[in-house]
Amino acid sequence: MIVKLEKEHLPECLDVIRKSFSTEVEKLGLNEQNCPDHIGFAKMEKLEYHLNCGVHMYGLYDNKQLIGHISLSEKENGVFDLYNLSILPEHRNNGYGTFMLNFAKVKVREMGGKKITVAIIEKNTILRDWYRVNGFVQRGTKRYEHLPYPVRYMEWKS
Description:
- This protein is of the alpha+beta class.
- It has a single domain, classed as Gcn5-related N-acetyltransferase (GNAT) (Aminopeptidase), CATH 3.40.630.
- Helix content is 33%, strand content 32%.
- It is built from four helices and seven strands; from the N terminus they run E-H-H-E-E-E-H-E-H-E-E.
- A seven-stranded mixed sheet has the order 1-2-3-4-5-7-6.
- The chain is globular and about 35 Å long.
- The two termini are 23 Å apart.
Protein backbone atom coordinates (compact mmCIF):
# COMPACT_ATOMS: atom_id res chain seq x y z
CA MET A 1 0.00 0.00 0.00
CA ILE A 2 1.31 3.45 -0.92
CA VAL A 3 0.44 6.40 1.32
CA LYS A 4 1.25 10.09 1.29
CA LEU A 5 3.87 10.74 3.95
CA GLU A 6 3.53 13.42 6.60
CA LYS A 7 5.99 14.91 9.07
CA GLU A 8 5.57 12.10 11.59
CA HIS A 9 6.71 9.58 8.94
CA LEU A 10 10.01 11.36 8.23
CA PRO A 11 12.27 9.48 10.71
CA GLU A 12 11.14 6.15 9.27
CA CYS A 13 11.45 7.58 5.75
CA LEU A 14 15.01 8.80 6.37
CA ASP A 15 15.99 5.34 7.57
CA VAL A 16 14.60 3.72 4.40
CA ILE A 17 16.35 6.24 2.14
CA ARG A 18 19.72 5.82 3.85
CA LYS A 19 19.54 2.02 3.88
CA SER A 20 18.34 1.91 0.28
CA PHE A 21 21.07 4.15 -1.05
CA SER A 22 23.79 2.53 1.07
CA THR A 23 24.34 -0.08 -1.65
CA GLU A 24 25.04 2.64 -4.24
CA VAL A 25 27.23 4.57 -1.79
CA GLU A 26 29.30 1.46 -1.10
CA LYS A 27 29.54 0.39 -4.75
CA LEU A 28 30.78 3.83 -5.86
CA GLY A 29 33.06 4.42 -2.87
CA LEU A 30 31.19 7.53 -1.78
CA ASN A 31 31.42 9.03 1.68
CA GLU A 32 30.39 12.24 3.41
CA GLN A 33 33.74 13.82 2.58
CA ASN A 34 33.81 13.19 -1.18
CA CYS A 35 30.05 13.48 -1.78
CA PRO A 36 28.23 15.07 1.18
CA ASP A 37 25.15 15.93 -0.91
CA HIS A 38 24.40 12.33 -1.91
CA ILE A 39 20.98 11.24 -0.67
CA GLY A 40 22.60 8.30 1.11
CA PHE A 41 23.87 10.82 3.66
CA ALA A 42 20.62 12.79 3.93
CA LYS A 43 19.76 14.56 7.14
CA MET A 44 16.32 15.03 8.67
CA GLU A 45 16.47 18.76 7.93
CA LYS A 46 16.58 18.06 4.19
CA LEU A 47 13.44 15.93 4.29
CA GLU A 48 11.65 18.47 6.46
CA TYR A 49 12.66 21.23 4.06
CA HIS A 50 11.32 19.28 1.07
CA LEU A 51 8.06 18.52 2.83
CA ASN A 52 7.65 22.18 3.81
CA CYS A 53 8.32 23.25 0.20
CA GLY A 54 5.44 21.15 -1.11
CA VAL A 55 7.33 18.08 -2.29
CA HIS A 56 4.94 15.13 -2.52
CA MET A 57 6.42 12.21 -0.56
CA TYR A 58 4.97 8.73 -0.69
CA GLY A 59 5.81 5.55 1.16
CA LEU A 60 5.28 1.93 0.27
CA TYR A 61 4.22 -0.19 3.23
CA ASP A 62 4.28 -3.94 3.59
CA ASN A 63 2.57 -5.18 6.78
CA LYS A 64 2.92 -1.79 8.50
CA GLN A 65 6.63 -1.58 7.64
CA LEU A 66 7.85 1.20 5.36
CA ILE A 67 9.89 -0.53 2.66
CA GLY A 68 9.98 2.10 -0.08
CA HIS A 69 9.88 5.82 -0.73
CA ILE A 70 9.43 8.18 -3.66
CA SER A 71 9.28 11.98 -3.97
CA LEU A 72 7.68 14.14 -6.66
CA SER A 73 8.28 17.85 -7.04
CA GLU A 74 6.42 20.03 -9.53
CA LYS A 75 8.72 22.32 -11.49
CA GLU A 76 6.81 24.15 -14.20
CA ASN A 77 4.60 23.55 -17.24
CA GLY A 78 3.50 20.10 -16.09
CA VAL A 79 7.03 18.82 -15.42
CA PHE A 80 7.70 16.86 -12.23
CA ASP A 81 11.05 15.81 -10.81
CA LEU A 82 11.14 12.32 -9.38
CA TYR A 83 13.75 11.60 -6.77
CA ASN A 84 14.69 9.38 -3.87
CA LEU A 85 12.96 6.35 -5.35
CA SER A 86 14.18 3.80 -2.86
CA ILE A 87 13.36 0.23 -1.90
CA LEU A 88 15.02 -1.46 1.05
CA PRO A 89 17.66 -3.87 -0.30
CA GLU A 90 16.00 -6.94 1.21
CA HIS A 91 12.76 -6.11 -0.67
CA ARG A 92 14.28 -5.50 -4.11
CA ASN A 93 13.61 -7.57 -7.22
CA ASN A 94 9.98 -8.11 -6.23
CA GLY A 95 8.48 -5.47 -8.54
CA TYR A 96 8.11 -2.82 -5.83
CA GLY A 97 10.21 -0.23 -7.70
CA THR A 98 8.12 -0.61 -10.84
CA PHE A 99 4.96 -0.49 -8.73
CA MET A 100 6.08 2.81 -7.17
CA LEU A 101 7.19 4.24 -10.50
CA ASN A 102 3.82 3.42 -12.06
CA PHE A 103 2.13 5.01 -9.04
CA ALA A 104 4.20 8.15 -9.66
CA LYS A 105 3.13 8.24 -13.31
CA VAL A 106 -0.54 8.07 -12.29
CA LYS A 107 -0.07 10.75 -9.60
CA VAL A 108 1.65 13.09 -12.03
CA ARG A 109 -1.20 12.70 -14.52
CA GLU A 110 -3.74 13.32 -11.72
CA MET A 111 -1.90 16.56 -10.85
CA GLY A 112 -2.01 17.68 -14.48
CA GLY A 113 1.58 16.71 -15.23
CA LYS A 114 2.87 15.70 -18.63
CA LYS A 115 6.46 14.76 -17.92
CA ILE A 116 8.64 13.21 -15.22
CA THR A 117 12.36 13.87 -15.07
CA VAL A 118 14.92 11.94 -13.06
CA ALA A 119 18.65 12.37 -12.46
CA ILE A 120 20.81 9.32 -11.82
CA ILE A 121 24.50 8.57 -11.49
CA GLU A 122 25.87 8.03 -15.00
CA LYS A 123 27.81 4.88 -14.01
CA ASN A 124 24.70 3.15 -12.71
CA THR A 125 23.88 1.24 -15.88
CA ILE A 126 21.48 -1.10 -14.08
CA LEU A 127 19.33 1.84 -12.96
CA ARG A 128 19.63 3.54 -16.35
CA ASP A 129 18.43 0.39 -18.12
CA TRP A 130 15.62 -0.07 -15.60
CA TYR A 131 14.33 3.45 -16.23
CA ARG A 132 14.63 2.87 -19.98
CA VAL A 133 12.53 -0.32 -19.73
CA ASN A 134 9.97 1.74 -17.81
CA GLY A 135 9.57 4.30 -20.60
CA PHE A 136 12.25 6.89 -19.78
CA VAL A 137 14.64 8.26 -22.40
CA GLN A 138 17.99 9.97 -21.95
CA ARG A 139 18.00 13.76 -22.21
CA GLY A 140 21.61 14.50 -21.43
CA THR A 141 24.53 14.11 -19.10
CA LYS A 142 26.16 16.79 -16.99
CA ARG A 143 29.22 17.02 -14.79
CA TYR A 144 29.05 19.13 -11.61
CA GLU A 145 32.04 20.43 -9.67
CA HIS A 146 30.63 19.34 -6.32
CA LEU A 147 29.96 15.73 -7.41
CA PRO A 148 32.58 13.03 -8.06
CA TYR A 149 30.52 11.55 -10.91
CA PRO A 150 28.56 12.71 -13.98
CA VAL A 151 24.75 12.86 -13.77
CA ARG A 152 22.47 11.39 -16.41
CA TYR A 153 19.09 13.06 -16.96
CA MET A 154 16.17 10.99 -18.18
CA GLU A 155 12.50 11.76 -18.79
CA TRP A 156 9.16 10.13 -19.28
CA LYS A 157 6.26 11.77 -21.10
CA SER A 158 2.63 10.79 -20.53
